[in-house]
From TrEMBL:
<feature type="compositionally biased region" description="Low complexity">
    <location>
        <begin position="1"/>
        <end position="19"/>
    </location>
</feature>
<protein>
    <submittedName>
        <fullName>Oxidoreductase</fullName>
    </submittedName>
</protein>
<feature type="domain" description="Aldehyde oxidase/xanthine dehydrogenase a/b hammerhead">
    <location>
        <begin position="45"/>
        <end position="151"/>
    </location>
</feature>
<dbReference type="InterPro" id="IPR046867">
    <property type="entry name" value="AldOxase/xan_DH_MoCoBD2"/>
</dbReference>
<dbReference type="InterPro" id="IPR037165">
    <property type="entry name" value="AldOxase/xan_DH_Mopterin-bd_sf"/>
</dbReference>
<dbReference type="InterPro" id="IPR000674">
    <property type="entry name" value="Ald_Oxase/Xan_DH_a/b"/>
</dbReference>
<dbReference type="InterPro" id="IPR008274">
    <property type="entry name" value="AldOxase/xan_DH_MoCoBD1"/>
</dbReference>
<dbReference type="Pfam" id="PF02738">
    <property type="entry name" value="MoCoBD_1"/>
</dbReference>
<dbReference type="Pfam" id="PF01315">
    <property type="entry name" value="Ald_Xan_dh_C"/>
</dbReference>
<dbReference type="GO" id="GO:0016491">
    <property type="term" value="F:oxidoreductase activity"/>
</dbReference>
<dbReference type="GO" id="GO:0005506">
    <property type="term" value="F:iron ion binding"/>
</dbReference>
<dbReference type="InterPro" id="IPR036856">
    <property type="entry name" value="Ald_Oxase/Xan_DH_a/b_sf"/>
</dbReference>
<dbReference type="InterPro" id="IPR016208">
    <property type="entry name" value="Ald_Oxase/xanthine_DH-like"/>
</dbReference>
<dbReference type="Pfam" id="PF20256">
    <property type="entry name" value="MoCoBD_2"/>
</dbReference>
<feature type="region of interest" description="Disordered">
    <location>
        <begin position="1"/>
        <end position="25"/>
    </location>
</feature>
Amino acid sequence: MSGTTDGAGAVTATPAAGVPIPPVEPSPHGLGVSLAAADAAAKTEGTFPYAADLWAEGLLWAAVLRSPHPRARILSIDTKHATEMPGVRVVVTHEDVPGDAGHGRGTADRPVFAKDEVRHHGEPIAAVAADHPDTARLAAAAIAVEYEVLDAVTDPQLAFEAEPLHPDGNLIRHIPLRFGDAEAVGEVMVEGLYRIGRQDPAPIGAEAGLAVPRPDGGVEIYTASTDPHTDRDLAAASFGLDPERVKVVVTGVPGATADREDPGIQLSLGLLALRTGCPVKLAATREESFLAHAHRHPTLLRYRHHADADGKLVKVEAQILMDAGAYADTSAEALAAAVSFSCGPYVVPHAVVEGWAVRTNNPPSGHMRGEGAMQVCAAYEGQMDKLAAQLGLEPDEIRMRNVMATGDLLPTGQTVTCPAPVAELLRAVKEAPLPELPKDTPEAEWLLPGGPEGAGEPGAVRRGVGYALGMVHMLGAEGTDEVSTATVKVSGSVATVICAAVETGSGFSTLARQIVQETLGIEEVHVAGVDTDQPPAGPACHGRHTWVSGGAVERAAKMVRTQLLQPLAHKFGMSTELLQITDGKITSYDGVLSTTVAEALDGKELWATAQCRPHPTEPLDEGGQGDAFVGLAFCAIRCVADVDIELGTIRVVEMSVAQDVGRVLNPRQLRARIEAGVTQGLGAALMENLRTTRGQVRHPDFTGYALPTALDAPDIRIVKLVEERDVVAPFGAKPASAVPVVTSPAAVASAVRAATGRPIGRLPIRPQAAVAQVVRQ
């Protein structure tokens, strides 16, 4: 075969004599195929449009002045020197907020700018717009604030008796759960105290945005929002505008494992743009990002497990105290998840659980993958290891004797109606082959905990094998109205999906393309950008967009399919159900009809809009009872870890994962989500903890806050994916990324317990906690 080159440099193949050209196979598409992400090339080539790359004519730059104190009374704010600096256009404080002064995703209790008191380190005091970013930062630093420093309340246990830190008080929510007989006892009882640290979302790119004033007196905000309609409503309320006069346009989101954005940045930008009449841009420093956005709730947990002599659970008693930081945010939701899943995916006849979320002067806490569920998983799995040791059982055996199944009850009284193949998952990881032991040779020294050139000795290394079972809820809970709207348009041979579901790295944009390809047989599918002119789709969390937004796309695509097929079905006197679309061709069951989608369209443009709304849930009552969740997802992980019992260094060798996924929609994407979740959980287990001293954040940067790298990531083996479809979920699929985040920290802790014999009650695990009580001679 030879080739010629066209004017664009592309090579066009031409056949040599007698050599036939094989037909070009169409690229696979539709559900169940590993379709590549449409933006993959742009992200790898550096051309993807992130918020920090935005530009506008006449641009001004913003900077925010933040509190250096965790708690202080504001006596005065003097902006005179800042406003007189050359190049400074405006300085805004709490006095310049025309609308509601409070905002927040769950509870609107956080001020745009602190007024009388600052309640956490890094709280916004004022914002500046200037003609150069350095000028803006210098002007912010020139604002003189007189403080009366107050004693910070940083221990959540002291928040109950401390003076109110907020007009709404220190207690955000209390859930007293009672299930079964509170007086029941078992023949065996174990107790434990567990502490979970403050994990940061650590987004790839720090928060950034651009606000542009509109001729109608409104404003457009361009930012990497994960919940644009909520952000629009918060902004409109703060600006004193109707929501229709505020537009949020979602720019490229560089990954998100939580709400990601600090809404205060968007509010500051919008106020500055409205005051100056000019576009205003802000790109937060990494330090500002650490100080301002929400983190995982640090949690203190006390547990007592009762069991009979055979290891069957009788009762679980627990106290769960979550540190919300200065403001409520989504802490009430996180607490509900923690209390509801406090017993884990196990059958527990009786439970007495007390849960509290309180305000402190620590950094703010909020939504993060598996919030609430991750903290209690680490605790109840620690208790299962203790029970196994007390009864002389293997850790996997004590779990197998108690696993939950479909039809069992949660301690909230809700029946588990979705598939719950917990025993199958545990069996899969237990039966998976174990990794080989490293050889005691110099060539394998890099395998030692601590890495190459480490101080450890091979003789001090012990290998541990640990197990953990985790669960999360899907979608919102406790009566949240989950709804999403999508539109599918078809013109020629191209389909377009319009849906306000933000692509945060979860793969929704790819899934939407696959749904339309599967339903309409059209290979070229585009997903439109997201802004608040579109109907709302809700936040990008709890696997919502796979279920609710994906369901809306599917329904809209099916409506378009009906519009496409009805004329043909009528012409041939048959039902549309007797026609099928495959690879762009429409055929009838008997082969009489065969045409292409393009021919059937005949130049027409078809479109349809549809909504998806799951069945309703209800709030937990005063006893912690109620059908609060739409569905559940489960995971089992076996961790193999090597521990230097003299130095306390830990190397996770392998994580074997079995997961309940409902249905595999994109194999490659699913594997990536699971591996990312496991790695994020590994960070929470071994290194990630935003440390504070009396409320002051220490080292708010990637020097002081360690993240797992490729060298830390273990071999992650997905040994089984259980595809038992959830009949109430579109496509039968379940969310994939949150449940391995929940489960993997508990599995790592279990493996370290097995290697050292130490209780391991704190995450991340400190080296001193992994030093065995008996070391080698």
